[in-house]
Amino acid sequence: MATANATVSIADDVSELDRRIAETDDLEQRIGVIREAVSGRIAFSTSLSIEDQAVLHAIATPKADIDVFTLDTGRHFPETLDVIAASSGRYCIPIRIAFPEARKVEELVARDGINGFRDSIDARKACCDARKVQPLRRQLAGAGGWITGLRRDQSGGRGDTPFASWDNDFKLVKLNPIADWSFEKLEAYVADNSIPINALHAQGYPSIGCQPCTRAIEPWEDIRAGRWWWENQDGKECGLHNRPANFQPASGEK
Ligand code: SF4
Fold this sequence. Notes:
Helix content: 25-40%
CATH superfamily: HUPs
Structural class: alpha/beta
Shape: globular
CATH class: Alpha Beta
CATH architecture: 3-Layer(aba) Sandwich
Oligomer: single chain
Bound molecules: iron/sulfur cluster
Number of helices: 7
Strand order of the largest sheet: 3-2-1-4-6-5
Radius of gyration: 18 Å
Largest sheet: 6 strands, mixed
Number of strands: 6
Mean pLDDT: 89
């Protein structure tokens, strides 16, 4: 795939890659297409969600050359950490665990309090920035590709998620190999392959983030209604996937 200096070629290449991923419905084949097309390190940032567990299975089963990592924010549910242990027991590929910088978290908590993220959207974004976005930025530095488990029907804001796109902020190809999957298809894939998933999914948590920022939902609610439920329902994201082109971290720190 082209380098960051060849903007036109990147656009052409990414468009072609998007088309090639769409040609097959098989997830392992999609991972193979991605590995073949993108040079350099390809990172898969797993949130340990049911989506990401499906992607992990497709990466780990043929042992694709993909760098798998997860971000431990320090505020996860115990059940989420259990998914790491279960996956490490099931699959023979390493899942690296990346932590936030201790000093950044100490400064955040000293300034805003241990649960300061409830006080304002700015405080919540600062917490997500220190615990998620900045660690993600470090892990993606130098990578050629970034695989995620985003799906178009997870929320209105993700409705036009492509299979492949150029991320001008991280300067890499962002890849969403199950972008077109319905939740029913995802559930069937997980069941057919006996993939380990978070026990909370069966307790009304379709979307799971940090423990203090996630609640169970009612059957009629949007699947992301339990994330930061005290905020306005529009545009609720942690900043990992909705960075503007000129994104600057909320904390003002790099
Ligand atoms: S989800 Fe909540 S606890 Fe986790 S990083 Fe964001 S604001 Fe902080």
